[in-house]
Amino acid sequence: MKNINRRFGDNLRELRKKFKLTQEQLAQLSEVDYKYIQRLEGKAPSSPSLNIIEKLAKALKISPAKLLDF
What we know:
The chain is mainly alpha-helical. It has a single domain, classed as 434 Repressor (Amino-terminal Domain). Helix content is 66%, strand content 0%.
């Protein structure tokens, strides 16, 4: 079973692709560093803070709960 960080990263990637955004575009929209988004979606992701989750959700125009729904 994947850990919660990995599941979050996979969900983030799926949603980003669903909205046809690159990592760079999401970084610009969310004001989150591009490299950090890469890490979140990578093989050994870190734990995002609530502030980062909120920024990413706002950029994707979804609720933070939807971003955490995996």
